[in-house]
C-alpha cells in the first residue's frame, strides 16, 4: 500500500513540476511577467501645472539643496521601472524525492541529498555521476570538469526562458534564445550531507535571426534560471533513482575519475583481466573493427564508425557521443579498480568533456556487456 501511494505521489510531483516550470513551451507569456496596467498607472504623465495657493496662505519656500543629480545609468538592470518590472514570483525549487532538500542562497540554488528511503547515503562519485548523466541526457556540453575540485562548468547551452532546450517549435514561435553557461559545484554541509550548488555564470539573449539583445537579464533572473536548472537536475535524479532500484541487482559501479597519470577516465569496479576481456567482447558485439590489441599492455586500438539509431536500440543503450575515427582504449589499475582511458588517433588523451559526454551511453554498454560476460562464464 505504501509503495502504491509513494508511486502516486511521485507521479503527481512530476505533473506539478511540469506545470510550474512551464517546460512544455519556450514561448514567452507576457501576461504573467509584466504588469497589466488595468488602471492606466503606467500612462501617468507630469502635467507641469503651476502650484495654486489660496490668497490667505503664505507661499512655501523651495530649495534644490536635496536634489539628486542626474547621472546616466550604464546598467539597465539597475533601473527597472514601469512596464519593464518583472512581476513574476521567485521560481520555486521543487524536490521530487523525500530525501532531497533545497535551499536558495542569492543567485545559488542548493540541492541536498540525504539518505534515501532504503538508508543509502550518496557517495561523492555517485553524486558526480548523477550530475554528468543529467547533462548528457539534456545535450548540455561540458567545458571544464574536475572530479578532484568538485565542479562542472558547462559550455554554451541554448535554451528557452524556462531553461528547456531550444527547439524548432520555439523558433516557429519566435521565442528568444537564451545562450547560457552554468556552474555545478559539489558541496557538503556541517552534517556531511552531499549536495550540489547550481549557478548561472554567463548569459546572452538573442532573437531567432541572431540579433543579440543588449538588455541582458534583470536582477531577479539569475536566481530564477539557477532554480529552473536545479529543478531539472532534481527531475533527472528522480528518474535515475527509479532506474537504479529497478536494476539494482544488475548494475556494476562505473564512474568517472582519474587514472595513474591524472588523466580523465572511466573507473570500473572489476578486475583488470575481466575488464579487458569484456571491452574486447564489446567491440566485437558492436561490429567495431579492432586494429590492434595487447592484453599485456592493456590496449585496444579500434576504427570506430558511428552506429545507426536502430543498432543502438538493438543493443539497449544510448549513442556514445563521439565522432567516427581511430581510437585507443588503455586499461589500467588504480585504487583496486580498473581504469579505461581513451586516446585519439594522435595518441593524445581525449579531454574531460569528451569522457563525460560519452559516459552515459558507454557505461550502459559496458554494464550490459559485463552482465552478458558473467552469465556466459557461469555456464562454462
Describe the structure.
- The protein is α+β, with helices and mostly antiparallel strands and 380 residues long.
- It has two domains: 198 residues, Alpha-D-Glucose-1,6-Bisphosphate, Chain A, domain 4 (2-Layer Sandwich), CATH 3.30.530; 125 residues, Outer membrane protein assembly factor BamC (TATA-Binding Protein, 2-Layer Sandwich).
- It is 29% helix and 23% strand.
- The strands form two sheets. Strands 1, 2, 3, 4, 5, 6 and 7 form a seven-stranded antiparallel sheet that branches. The chain has a six-stranded antiparallel sheet with strand order 8-9-13-12-11-10.
- The longest helix is centred in the C-terminal third of the chain and has 27 residues.
- About 3% of the residues have low confidence.
- Pfam families: Lipoprotein_18 (PF06804).
- InterPro entries: BamC_C, NlpB/DapX.
- Keywords: Lipoprotein, Signal.
Task: Describe the structure concisely for a colleague.
With 380 residues, the protein is of the alpha+beta class. 29% of the residues lie in helices and 23% in strands. It contains 7 helices and 13 strands.
Amino acid at each position: 500500500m505504501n509503495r502504491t501511494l509513494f508511486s502516486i505521489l511521485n507521479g503527481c510531483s512530476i505533473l506539478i513540476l511540469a506545470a510550474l516550470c512551464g517546460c512544455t513551451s519556450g514561448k514567452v507569456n507576457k501576461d504573467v511577467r509584466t504588469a497589466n496596467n488595468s488602471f492606466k498607472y503606467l500612462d501617468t504623465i507630469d502635467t507641469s501645472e503651476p502650484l495654486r495657493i489660496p490668497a490667505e496662505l503664505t507661499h512655501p519656500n523651495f530649495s534644490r539643496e536635496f536634489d539628486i543629480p542626474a547621472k546616466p545609468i550604464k546598467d539597465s538592470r539597475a533601473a527597472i521601472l514601469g512596464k519593464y518590472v518583472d512581476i513574476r514570483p521567485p521560481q520555486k525549487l521543487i524536490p521530487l524525492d523525500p530525501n532531497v532538500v533545497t535551499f536558495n542562497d542569492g543567485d545559488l540554488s542548493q540541492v541536498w541529498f540525504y539518505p534515501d528511503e532504503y538508508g543509502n547515503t550518496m557517495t561523492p562519485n555517485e553524486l558526480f555521476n548523477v550530475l554528468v548523466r543529467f547533462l548528457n541526457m539534456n545535450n548540455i556540453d561540458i567545458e571544464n570538469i574536475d572530479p578532484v575540485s568538485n565542479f562542472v562548468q558547462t559550455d554554451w547551452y541554448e535554451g528557452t526562458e524556462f531553461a528547456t532546450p531550444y527547439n524548432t517549435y520555439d523558433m516557429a514561435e519566435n521565442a528568444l534564445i537564451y545562450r547560457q553557461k552554468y556552474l555545478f559545484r559539489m558541496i557538503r554541509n556541517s552534517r556531511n550531507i552531499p549536495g550540489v550548488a547550481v549557478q548561472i555564470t554567463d548569459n546572452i539573449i538573442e532573437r531567432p535571426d541572431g540579433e543579440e539583445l543588449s538588455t541582458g537579464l534583470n536582477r531577479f533572473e539569475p536566481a530564477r534560471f539557477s532554480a529552473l536548472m536545479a529543478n531539472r537536475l532534481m527531475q533527472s535524479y528522480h528518474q535515475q533513482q527509479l532506474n537504479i532500484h529497478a536494476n539494482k541487482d544488475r548494475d556494476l559501479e562505473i564512474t568517472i575519475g582519474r587514472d595513474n597519470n591524472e588523466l580523465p577516465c572511466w573507473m570500473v569496479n572489476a578486475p583488470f583481466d575481466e575488464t579487458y576481456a569484456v571491452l574486447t567482447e564489446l567491440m566485437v558485439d558492436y561490429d567495431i573493427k579492432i586494429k590492434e590489441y595487447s592484453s599485456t599492455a592493456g590496449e585496444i586500438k579500434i576504427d570506430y564508425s558511428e552506429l545507426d539509431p536502430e543498432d543502438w536500440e538493438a543493443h539497449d543503450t544510448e549513442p556514445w557521443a563521439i565522432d567516427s575515427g581511430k581510437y585507443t582504449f588503455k586499461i589500467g589499475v588504480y585504487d583496486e579498480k580498473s581504469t579505461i582511458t581513451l586516446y585519439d588517433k594522435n595518441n593524445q588523451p581525449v579531454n574531460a568533456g569528451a569522457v563525460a559526454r560519452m559516459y552515459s551511453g558507454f557505461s550502459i554498454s559496458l554494464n550490459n556487456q559485463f552482465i552478458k560476460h558473467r552469465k556466459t562464464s557461469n555456464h562454462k
